[in-house]
């Protein structure tokens, strides 16, 4: 399974500790909807998302951004067991919400960019590397229940994580 | 969900994610703002890529020092960003403009084109760090599209 050194755990907690979910969540989700407009397909009931200004001012987008970012908190607090922590969230996204799991990677990359903009130069290459490892594991865990029809993933979910670790 | 085609300002109906007139002008304007720091951005983005995506180091196994601040890393990052800066002026024909570099990457360097996306991500991270207020969502989408089109042009000769 995923191994975290003490340094990695404390880096991830330190980064997360400085993130204001209520600010960063809406910024990240809004930016995803602007930069990758096809993601708007999941938010038909959110009202006006017709322009960047409409998206960044949309209260439903902001509220949802806080929810999504808030869920990351569980991963930070359960770093040794992210796969199990996200099992039911993954199932919900796969079987009820029908979200393409590539979107998890897209959101993770945009979140990293938003955090980088907030932190500036203190988001060093080494801290970025650790944070991106954490994002990769979260993204793989969120995608893990999409593959339950495939025997190898049923028997060894770590394979799913390992394979995900080799894609961007 | 509405099936109406929503068009943003400057968009027109077209068959693929090509650069619009607006994309090109946003990229040119932004590049004008960052040009003084382009070397620094290139050096840092390249160093971030090597650090956060260690599999990319395989192409530089002949360098002694692959740490983010090292001489070769800074120098090479600057070279890459210089080429990208030139491409800003070639946006009307990226495939033609990148032809020689595409030959080089395809036949000499043989860099897996998946890595262009990885470097692009690190360029975006570095731009966000150095230009947090200028790197708005509108600039982000235009630069992301430009880097994707540039990557495709660079991979054009691969097969």
Automatic annotation (TrEMBL), chain A:
Record has Transport as a keyword: yes
Keyword terms of this UniProt record: Heme, Iron, Metal-binding, Oxygen transport, Transport
GO biological process: hydrogen peroxide catabolic process
Record GO cellular component, one term: haptoglobin-hemoglobin complex
Domain annotation Globin: ranges: 3-147
Pfam family, one: Globin
Parts forming coiled coils: none
PROSITE patterns per the UniProt record, alphabetical: GLOBIN
The protein's name: Globin domain-containing protein
Lineage of origin: Eukaryota, Metazoa, Chordata, Craniata, Vertebrata
From TrEMBL, chain B:
GO cellular component: blood microparticle; haptoglobin-hemoglobin complex; hemoglobin complex
PROSITE patterns referenced in this protein's UniProt entry, alphabetically: GLOBIN
InterPro entries: Globin, Globin-like_sf, Globin/Proto, Hemoglobin_a-typ, Hemoglobin_oxygen_transport, Hemoglobin_pi
Alphabetical keyword list: Heme, Iron, Metal-binding, Oxygen transport, Transport
UniProt keyword Metal-binding present: yes
Keyword Transport: yes
CDD domains: Hb-alpha-like
GO molecular function: haptoglobin binding; heme binding; iron ion binding; organic acid binding; oxygen binding; oxygen carrier activity; peroxidase activity
SUPFAM superfamilies linked to this entry: Globin-like (SSF46458)
BP term (GO), one: hydrogen peroxide catabolic process
Pfam name, any one: Globin
Globin domain mapped to chain residues: 18-159
Family: Belongs to the globin family.
Protein name: Hemoglobin, alpha adult 2
Lineage of origin: Eukaryota, Metazoa, Chordata, Craniata, Vertebrata
